[in-house]
Design brief:
Two copies of one chain form a homodimer.
Chain A lengths: L3 E4 L3 E4 L7 H7 L4 E6 L3 H4 L2 H11 L3 E5 L8 H14 L3 E6 L1 H14 L20 E5 L11 E6 L4 E6 L7 E4 L9 H19 L7 H23 L4 H15 L12 H13 L3 H16 L4 H12 L8 H18 L16 H10 L8 E2 L3 E2 L1 H10 L2
Parallel strand pairs in A: 2-9, 3-4, 3-5, 5-6, 6-9
Antiparallel strand pairs in A: 7-8, 10-11
Helix pairs in contact in A: 1-3, 4-5, 6-7, 6-8, 6-10, 7-8, 7-11, 9-10, 9-13, 10-12, 10-14, 11-12, 13-14
Chain lengths: 392, 392
Amino acid sequence: MEGFTFYAPTYFAFGKETENKAGELVKRFGGSKVLIHYGGGSVIKSGLLDRVKASLTKENISFEELGGVMPNPRSGLVYKGIDICREKGIDFILAVGGGSTIDSAKAIAAGALYDGDFWDFYEGKTVDKALPIGTVLTIAAAGSEGSPDSVITKEEGMLKRGASGEAYRPKFSILNPELTKTLPPYQTAAGITDIMAHLYERYLTNTDEVEVTDRMIEALLITMIKEGPRVIEDPNNYQARANIMWAGMMAHNNSCGVGRTQDWSSHTIEHELSAVYDCAHGAGLAVTMPAVFTYTMNHDVNRFAQIACRVWDCKMDFYHPEKTAKEGIECLRNFLKSIGMPVTFEELGAKEEDIEKMAYTACYGDGNGSGYIKGFTKLDQKDVENIYRLMM
Amino acid sequence: MEGFTFYAPTYFAFGKETENKAGELVKRFGGSKVLIHYGGGSVIKSGLLDRVKASLTKENISFEELGGVMPNPRSGLVYKGIDICREKGIDFILAVGGGSTIDSAKAIAAGALYDGDFWDFYEGKTVDKALPIGTVLTIAAAGSEGSPDSVITKEEGMLKRGASGEAYRPKFSILNPELTKTLPPYQTAAGITDIMAHLYERYLTNTDEVEVTDRMIEALLITMIKEGPRVIEDPNNYQARANIMWAGMMAHNNSCGVGRTQDWSSHTIEHELSAVYDCAHGAGLAVTMPAVFTYTMNHDVNRFAQIACRVWDCKMDFYHPEKTAKEGIECLRNFLKSIGMPVTFEELGAKEEDIEKMAYTACYGDGNGSGYIKGFTKLDQKDVENIYRLMM
């Protein structure tokens, strides 16, 4: 276990009708002039946006609105949000939606207080200042409601990149599992996959002696394996949705990832897929993870055998640990398939002819990258091409 | 899973030499005139106090000192600390020590900003205002470094009571596992027991469908069962101490206890033992827990069978689940014995003749109590007497 710092000062209000606390919480955390940021029609149709607005009005908080966030949120809308913040003197950003909306809100929050181009943060600059952010979460998936992270796609070149910093942790997040009941099963399953990916990426470490975080990650994965299928079978299962929602936050606030190196190869390799084909990030991960794990398994067979036994209830083959390791990866693939996720390149609409370009961008970005994806292993462009081919 | 709020805004600096960040962190969280609070000679002898002072001085932070905190910290020193804060204009309290020192620091922090008697908070008044607190932790045990709780013993009548409130969460906590290496094995083991008790008290719930928190609690218990014996065998095992230290914080910051009823009967019943016999709280819990669990087991046999199977690797006896439940309790007792904890009344120095009085105080306090300990079950004075007798 390595040294670390951990700071997660987000206030969580969890449970039914908690969206009605939005006004009270914005006030508590110093907001008086709010930008409400959201996506498409669902938050309008469901009446959620109206309830949130009513809650703000009740506390005499004024607000502007900016809708239109798309999955894999784009830089164009971020610039628009930054302009509104400056013109209207916004002092708090309230994201009503899923990870895309929250990530877009974070980018606006940082950009509004920064003289340069907000994209600098997505090319490595640390986010140390941002307008305060609150969230009303509508899908358990990205964990952005409790994380210091944000991922944005730059339209020019369709570059999908992440930024991080303490200032990106929301001041508060409202988690009402009921709000996730109306999600289509495909989106619910993509969210489940994303949560599981956050856990796997942390599990694949080169740090020794990390029993406490290993066990916590396993606990959250086991929860997803139990609760995931229940919510796919019955979208109205409040309890299953509640368990998934808290697991999704815990999976990514990093309390189970401290003191250990992490991987994030699957995310990097997937980002090209969702940038190029605009697929759901979770669906892309369902295709990517088994391929990455199969390709990198031999780097530490016992780590994969451990997760196979502890999480997937495989029996350890002590003569052939690699068989156990592979069985665990197969269990993951079958599970993802069972909840309705794609598991091949084709199902995703991806094409062989794009592999070389995607592998290049994954390793080199727009030309300035190191040429490697470094995490659990060190992958170069050829490795990444091989991994994409494994998905076919 | 029930609705809840969760807010844990403590900054953690974890790892070797992190005590040297004390000054920087006090400054970050607004302190300029500090009261350093500590216990006995060990923090002086080890040089820790000097290193912390040097770190404050480096940041031009002035400080006063108040040592002398004893295990099961007393109200007398709290009053003294409150006086110092008022006289010297203290604006930040830095606890250097274990749970007792941190709990005492919390009481001083609340009392300094309160016109009435600080003991009001320990009779049920919510702590909504306190001076900011920082900690440099020297034993993994109480979890006070990340919790909103404090327990103090009132010398008049030797009443041991807890208080809680958001203002009691430390602004920062410094967790250096190396600082715990010099602890005597008995204290290390008492700390391990306390951590396990925090997990059991949360596990014993009457709330259905709490898979995510069940699994997290189990994960932390399994960690303690693996790492506990390693650190008893080799006190210098940094990695085992590091895993225990993070598990101890996670066990009590309540991220694994949200959305479910909790028990706390073992703590209430133990508090009488450590108040009357001045034993280590953890040692008292080692004697108390198996007795409480044996007495209350039939309230929900499956819950005890579940923890027996998942945490202690017992095999489920589907014909006789109560046998599995009992086996799990026996595993706990044997584990505590194996790390050097007492498991009987006698080993603790406790006496049968005190049972009636202790049971009365546990249920009625100084006369104003409800007559019951309510948690997993509802226990009256006769029940508590029976439980104490089970320890003999």
